[in-house]
Structure prediction request, 407 residues.
Amino acid sequence: MSDLDLLISNINLASMSDATAGHSLADYGSMTHTSIGIKEGKIHRLYPPGSTLPTATTHIDGNGGWLTPGLIDCHSHLVWGGNRAREFEWRLQGISYEEISRRGGGIASTVKATRDASDNELKAAAQQRLTTLMAEGVTCLEIKSGYGLSLEHEARLLRIARELGNENPLTVQTTLLAAHALPPEFSDKDSYIDEICENIIPKIAALKLADAVDVFCEGIGFSTAQCQRVFDVAKEHALAIKGHVEQLSDLKGALLVANNAGLSADHIEYLQAEDVPALKGAGTVAVLLPGAFYALKEQQLPPIAALREHRVPMAVATDLNPGTSPQASLRLAMNQACVLFGLTPQESLAGVTRDAAKALGLGHCKGQLAVGFDADMVLWDIGHPSELSYGVNLCQPREVFYLGQKR
Ligand code: NIG
Ligand code: FE
Prediction:
């Protein structure tokens, strides 16, 4: 019997381990000319150069390539019907995202197209996007609902997301985003929040369809008081908390998420520097979504300097959705995080590995190449890990390993 299930020798590791956290210019936690041993889906041991290597059922020669943790996209709206290419044309003519939303376009138009689509149509389109993400090295993906806006349709989207997780090798985490917009059946936001709190969350929780609950805290979304009601019920059902906050204005949604011990505050372009310490205190991850910033041609930058100063973990995600971030590429988001938000390539890689895992409550088991962590890994034929952020798809994974336990 072999000592290991898998041994990959002759590689350089970008471990992205916790030891590199808080350093913007450190060395990716790198270990050069090394080997890694995998047993029962976990990283069993790292072997420095010159070590005597044990036997393994499978032995791969890494050929001097780089091994990184599998990439994690911690914020996506993967399952939707239709598209919003017409709105893209309107935005190019100068009509704002908020104005289009007020005129009944935006999220509402995708809700209609999603409700009209069959399960098979939704799933096939989502599978195509998922396959594109996986080809880039994504081994873990969060999928939100939010284009159903009724118990029946939100459950349908989450069920499709769960099925995609069962039918593909990657880990899928699901998030209920019923508080995304006002559905056409309701004329007043408080009554819809009643429906979310009294019916949708309890039933979705009983069906075990969601790992977390998210809200859109914004003028065109819901107020902090309404979001607090959603969070109260989420907590009663032991669901984790996330928030779309400070995307278009400063409603203090990030403070609300932090006060509720939320996993992540997402978007945060309008977050004030003085509110950043609250995120650190609560262990809330800042999720940066440069794809939406880019597509909406936003000008307001998230407070990166303050997040760095207070050592708030910064994740980077696609926000893949048909309206504000129609990009099925986490590699592009890594590049955008550097070019648009000024992250270093090391911060950008940490943002799609270690810190993305933390944004999903999986920081203890995914996102790092460290002993005891899940063996979700990507082998790249690159000379340095900065290449992963520098260009867009100039290099592809040589091999993606989905060996870790599904979570
Ligand atoms: O993350 N901000 C709210 N939700 C999505 C956009 C949804 C849409 O426009 O369809 C976002 O940007
Ligand atoms: Fe989003």
